[in-house]
Amino acid sequence: MRYTKMHGAGNSFLLTENLRGELQGEDLSVLALRLCSEKTGPGADGLIVIGPSADADFAMLFFNSDGTRGEMCGNGARCVARYGVEHGLAGDAREIRFETTAGLVTGRRIDRTRYCVRLNDPSVIELHREVLGTDCAYVELGRPGIPHAVVEVGADAFDDPDALRERGRRLRHAAAFPRGANVTFACLTGENTVRAVTFERGVEDFTLACGTGSGATALSLILRGRIPGETAEIDMPGGRLSITLRCEGDAARDILLTGPTAVVEEGEI
């Protein structure tokens, strides 16, 4: 099996093709669990399997590092968009179209390494949900939606990453989120700049960046009136991600995620 390891702002993925049934008979969940562990594979935050599509350039199946199936992944989508262009799978670098479990995603090439993807429109927006004594914004992107909880914190919360990690773990498994939730802690650092970190379900730890988490964070802070306008710069441990969206009253759509991609290695297992 050939693979390409990529990352988007430090969020790492193993990409492999299944366009002609190369992985026929494989249990993809077990494959993800094995390959994403550094003890038994190259190691990554997730596995992306690229398959055929009748209605788009290709299809993207996403698996978390624990083998669970994810609806979609924003940083992974930017990486797969670049892969599609560089491997001749995308018909037009200005409009890359691929299927995901959460719905159709489109992307475009900005330059050699920077790509922009349109995240799935939110199917659920709750600007205030009390969970374990914490005021969360809750957003699901797509249908079925990727569940995200966003918690605004003070700058000093980042000084104790272990305490923040434990708080994220408790919220991620809270009964208020029946399918679990990715939990992003966010702090405003400027008029439209945010420091954030996401505890991701399926990885069960903080990752260096979360694309859909950045989208949910920008959406919730803008709709709460904490950020003016319709743009936000989200600074995550692995780098900066840019979000633009369109507000429609208490809703939002056309969420665009822009950021860097990098090819780490190519190999065969």
Give a description of the structure:
The longest helix is centred in the N-terminal third of the chain and has 13 residues, at 74-86. The protein has helices spanning 28-36, 74-86, 161-172, 211-223; strands at 2-8, 11-17, 46-51, 58-64, 69-70, 96-100, 103-109, 114-118, 122-131, 134-142, 145-152, 182-188, 193-200, 205-206, 231-236, 239-248, 251-260, 262-268. The protein is built from four helices and 18 strands. It has an 18-stranded mixed beta sheet that branches. The chain is globular, with a radius of gyration of 17 Å. The chain is α+β, with helices and mostly antiparallel strands. The mean pLDDT is 96.
What attributes characterize this protein structure?
269 residues, alpha+beta, 18-stranded mixed sheet
Describe the SSE topology.
Layout: E1 2-8, E2 11-17, H1 28-36, E3 46-51, E4 58-64, E5 69-70, H2 74-86, E6 96-100, E7 103-109, E8 114-118, E9 122-131, E10 134-142, E11 145-152, H3 161-172, E12 182-188, E13 193-200, E14 205-206, H4 211-223, E15 231-236, E16 239-248, E17 251-260, E18 262-268
Parallel strand pairs: 2-3, 4-6, 11-12, 13-15
Antiparallel strand pairs: 1-2, 1-18, 3-4, 4-5, 6-7, 7-8, 8-17, 9-10, 10-11, 12-13, 13-14, 15-16, 16-17
What would you say about this model in short?
This protein is of the alpha+beta class and about 270 residues long. It has helices spanning about 30-35, 75-85, 160-170, 210-225; strands at about 1-10, 10-15, 45-50, 60-65, 70, 95-100, 105-110, 115-120, 120-130, 135-140, 145-150, 180-190, 195-200, 205, 230-235, 240-250, 250-260, 260-269.
